[in-house]
Design a protein that fits this description.
Length: about 950
């Protein structure tokens, strides 16, 4: 059964909320009509703007219109008219079949203010230009808009009254439409050819009411009041819509309409607009399933349309309509006035309309400037002899209809097993984050303003992996705006790192962001215990006001937050994996606190999202092309993805490392991301490399020469250009989609991490040894020389064939195990804030790369355990690992635990070594007496000597 066809059978029409060129001027519109039962299309100015600036699908049209001498506003109108014609032509057979009751293209009026006269003039001009019988003009149902609706209806123009947020406003719009028809009938003019519709806003009502309910519940005096408030969450929008439906039915049954009907008037079509779910705690198909009412239409965004087609459960909702009144009676009884909230809703809708109009104008201006300057493409692929396999992979992905299945959250793209499919389906929430998080921008910005007003000077994020690396990118790329807290990301259990942070901050004026998807990650929870205990000694019970949490629903961290009375808890969508969470609360909230404009980030994410639509051009699609290239090159042995990034965005490479490594390194396959490795001459690189250059701005051409030399030498080279650092918002989504595509080509599930738990379990086992005699000890074969202690994994030691006990000689034998197409992973359990140590590790990395001519990765532990750690254990045996750790000169106890931070850090290092050794990996651990550069130098010297031998 096709659930969308079932909606049709129940008497409801399905419309699509996107009239972009790629939808209506291609075969996509026919597919939507034939396969998804779509019988109407509404213009969405925001999506049109993104298609202009992201998919660039309007460039040819804009070029032609510029030659006519048109200005930006005139160009926008012409483009909208052309799209409306395409949509109306495609829907015309349905319009005829329904005798003019359905099959409409509904078009927004642009280039007009909201006065009645301006709306009337613009609507008349628009209808004349489109010149199709099945076009409706969308007019906001404001006070002035109602006047325009009546005038236009009297003139015989099909009107769609839009942005209706309350029952009262719906009644007023209905009256305006009826008046127009009555005046027309009184003048003896036909009314049987004048269609009319009213669009009732749905999901925004829950957004506004829920926010009020949550705020009231937080400050409720008793549990009874709190329970009553929370019981109303997620009920206002559907109740509001159902009350409007009752009024709709009353109007159709009224004597006033029956009189018009006898003269041929058609019933007003009630359309549920803004019907995609904006709250991640609710089903993505909530409104589509709860508002299946006969004689109505529902306008759905693509992701909801695709999801309902696959998983929807249609059922008639005509029973229990009277119960909707009780919802608002209960709200009123709790002091929440319907009329006041409805006014706020309308104001928000008008603000959104103004923003979408502005977006179209800005998009046209941006493309005009780009076309006049003849700026080149923002991506360039030089594949050389790999052109054919990349092209074949691209054809395969296109043949899979990848983006349509991705939008439908169809797990069969990757795996067929029931377990995999369930896990994958619950991991695809990242695909709609640009849409979902737009609704939370005001909430996040309001909280950021609260933190600024409270006088916090710093924000310290306590997290690991997916919850820490995107905030690290924002902190290092954007810094903090004047008056906003600076952001420090603490994703280390090293005592030196803890001390570094304590020395940088004023404890009482620091906000701590405890960030964990599972809510049980040992590192951030241990760090929380430490800082909370320190603050409690100063502020007592008020110490919780310095903490907020970001986590999934119903996690242990939520319990911590209640127990310690955190200032705020932000609940993230549970179907978003940690490494795919940059555009969720995990990334956006810390960014906003420091003054980053998260609306601009999401705007650029939306532009990339326009490339993920099934209608987007496939062959030249830079997202699909990049994913196909990396996946197919990986299968051909070009699996070391080497990134060249400018200093301004260099930490973005760390985020990509985590995303790609943890997503693709499994089942004996994987891509090895290499970030932070300094650029060298062509002779330094082996035949397993792919080079990916990202530049920022016009003047960043430092690596042009070497990129040309690499391409000439036969290496695949990919060049990506960013004009502005805010384009990172789009890059997060681009690389998430690219990773998903590459995973499909590699034949793996990119959304699990099957080998991560092994290191965690072994680390926990080591922690339990801390209280025993002699404390925790490293695994493997112990060797010493010149004050250097190292432990080599048994598997590696056996492979060397060395029988002695001299560390220097053993290390020489170990490095001889490095073979062609291997990579060396340098894993340092040290203070990541110490610049001198970082420079020492950089020297070691360069020495090993140049001597072995293999790729090198560098990562701080335990950070890497939550990123590249999966790759190290899940891909083929091509990794050679050196773990660096040290004794503690100064240590700190984890409050409420039996261990210290140094003990935790060493347990994690030793546990990971044991995990790698158990997989047969080549691994050695070197132990320094202390955390300083001086203590590290003998190890550095020994490694350099061993690499030269």
């Amino acid at each position: 059964m096709n659930p969308l066809l079932e909606l049709k059978r129940l008497g409801q029409s399905v419309w699509h909320d996107n009239m972009r060129k790629g939808v209506v001027a291609t075969g996509e519109i026919k597919r939507l009509i034939d396969e998804y039962a779509v019988s109407g299309v509404t213009s969405n100015l925001s999506l049109m703007a993104r298609a202009m600036t992201g998919a660039l699908e309007y460039d040819d049209d804009i070029s032609l219109l510029l030659k006519e001498g048109l200005n930006d506003s005139e160009i926008a109108v012409r483009l909208l008219v052309r799209d409306a014609r395409h949509a109306a032509d495609a829907l015309l057979p349905l319009w005829k079949l329904s005798n003019g009751a359905d099959g409409f293209a509904a078009v927004d009026v642009i280039g007009a203010d909201l006065s009645a006269a301006s709306l009337v003039d613009a609507a008349r001009s628009l209808v004349k230009a489109v010149d199709r019988p099945n076009v409706l003009v969308r007019i906001p149902a404001t006070g002035e808009g109602l006047e325009a609706i009546e005038v236009l209806t009297f003139a015989g123009i099909g009107v769609y009254a839009t942005l209706i947020c309350s029952v009262r406003r719906y009644e007023a719009a209905t009256v305006a439409l009826l008046r127009g028809l009555e005046r027309r009938a009184a003048e003896g003019m036909p009314i049987d050819t004048v269609p009319c519709a009213a669009g009732f806003t749905v999901s925004r009502a829950d957004t506004v009411f829920d926010r009020i309910l949550e705020e009231r519940a937080e400050h409720a005096k008793g549990n009874d009041e709190k329970s009553r408030l929370r019981a109303l969450l997620g009920r206002a929008a559907v109740a509001n819509a159902k009350l409007a439906f009752l009024k709709h039915e009353e109007a159709r049954a009224s004597a006033r309409f029956k009189k018009l009907k006898s003269s041929g008037a058609k019933p007003q079509l009630l359309i549920w607009e803004s019907a995609g779910t904006k709250n991640h705690l609710y089903s993505g198909m909530k409104y589509a399933e709860e508002l299946s009412l006969p004689g109505t239409a529902i306008s759905l965004p693509l992701h909801t349309l695709l999801a309902f087609h696959c998983h929807g459960r249609p059922a008639s909702q005509t029973s229990g309509l009277e119960a909707a009144k009780k919802v608002f009676d209960e709200l009123g009884g709790l002091g929440i006035e319907y009329a006041e909230v409805a006014a706020d809703l309308e104001e928000g809708c008008l603000k959104s309309l103004a923003a979408s109009r502005e977006a179209v104008a800005k998009a046209v201006a941006e493309r005009r400037q780009a076309l006049s300057k003849k700026t080149g493409p923002t991506s360039k692929f030089t594949m050389g002899r790999f052109d054919s396999p990349v092209a074949e992979a691209l054809d395969s992905v296109i043949g899979e209809d990848f983006f349509r299945k991705l939008g439908a959250h169809d797990p069969s793209i990757w795996k067929a097993g029931l377990g995999d499919k369930k896990q994958i389906k619950g991991s695809l929430g990242w695909t709609i984050l640009p849409y979902l998080m737009e609704e939370h921008v005001d909430e996040i910005n309001d909280f950021a303003a609260e933190i600024k007003a409270a006088g916090f000077k710093d924000a310290v994020l306590l997290g690991m992996g997916g919850s820490s690396l995107a905030p690290l990118v924002f902190a290092t790329t954007f810094g903090s705006a004047p008056g906003c807290p600076g952001l420090i990301v603490l994703d280390s259990t090293d005592p030196g790192a803890l001390k570094s942070v304590m020395e940088r901050i004023d404890l009482e004026k620091t906000l701590f962001i405890v960030s964990s998807k599972s809510g049980s990650t040992i590192e951030p929870l241990s760090l929380f215990e430490y800082f909370h205990a320190a603050l409690e000694r100063i502020k007592g019970e008020e110490s919780g006001r310095n903490f907020i949490a970001i986590t999934d629903p119903a996690t242990p961290l939520e319990g911590f937050a209640r127990k310690y009375r955190f200032r705020k808890v932000f609940t993230n969508p549970k179907d978003v994996g940690g490494r795919f969470s940059a555009l969720s609360y995990f990334g956006l909230l810390p960014a906003a606190i420091t003054g980053v404009d998260i609306s601009r980030l999401l705007e650029h994410a939306g532009r990339v999202d326009s490339l993920l639509h099934p209608c987007a051009a496939s062959s030249g699609n830079p997202v699909m092309m990049l994913g196909a290239a990396l996946g197919s090159l990986g299968l051909k042995g070009r699996d070391k993805l080497t990134f060249f990034l400018p200093k301004e965005i260099e930490t973005f490479g760390m985020w990509i490392e985590q995303l790609v490594a943890e997503s693709t390194g499994k089942e004996g396959r994987g891509l090895v991301p290499v970030s932070g490795e300094p650029v060298s001459s062509v002779s330094s690189y082996g035949s397993d490399r792919v080079f990916i250059s990202m530049t920022l701005g016009d003047g960043d051409r430092a690596n042009e020469t070497v990129l040309g030399e690499l391409a000439a030498a036969g290496h695949p080279v990919i060049e990506l250009k960013l004009r502005d650092k805010y384009e990172l918002g789009g890059e997060f989504l681009r690389w998430e989609a690219v990773t998903a595509i590459a995973g499909q080509i590699l034949g793996i599930n990119p959304f699990d991490q099957p080998d991560v738990e092994l290191a965690k379990k072994l680390a926990a086992s080591r922690l339990n040894e801390l209280g025993g005699e002699g404390g925790v000890k490293p695994p493997g074969i112990e060797l010493k020389a010149g004050g250097v202690r190292l432990n080599m994994g048994k598997s590696a030691f056996d492979k060397t064939g060395y029988k002695g006990a001299d560390a220097a000689e053993a290390l020489k034998g170990f490095l001889k195990l490095v073979g062609k197409d291997d990579y060396i992973g340098l894993l340092a359990y040290y203070d990541p804030f110490d610049a001198r140590l970082e420079e020492a590790f950089r020297r070691v990395r360069l020495s090993l790369r140049d001597s072995a001519r293999v790729a090198t990765q560098f990562g701080y532990g335990p950070r890497y355990l939550h990123s590249t750690g999966q790759l190290h254990k899940g891909r083929p045996d091509c990794g050679v690992f050196i773990i660096f750790c040290h004794g503690a000169l100064e240590d700190f106890k984890v409050p409420g635990s039996s261990f210290t931070f140094s003990g935790l850090e060493l347990s994690q290092a030793f546990g990971d070594m044991e995990a790698l050794d158990s997989k047969g990996s080549r691994v050695v651990l070197v132990m320094a007496d202390g955390p300083s550069e001086e203590c590290l130098r003998p190890i550095e010297d020994m490694l350099k000597a061993a690499s030269r031998s």
